[in-house]
Amino acid sequence: MQSLFQILMMVLDLVYYIIIAHFIMSWLIQFQVLNVRQQLVGQIWYGLSRLLEPIYGPIRRILPQMGGLDLSPLVALLAISALRIILINNYAAFT
Description:
Number of helices: 3
Mean pLDDT: 93
Strand content: under 5%
Structural class: mainly alpha
Distance between the termini: 6 Å
Helix content: over 70%
């Protein structure tokens, strides 16, 4: 069961870093540092967007409209952090 705990923590870490990369990339695209018309940038951007849409979609439906400001990555990061805390505090159940 300890292996299951370590795998869950690894998956949560991976999702956390993918969300951070998507967030940073969105700002770089918004400030025109990166151009989505470049093939590599476009593929990475659309790949990350499609990968994270199942996480962001339900959050966007719950959150009110903020006038162009998307807070779903922040809420997702908070949820992942809370889930990590819950798993760490209940570590004894996995051993």
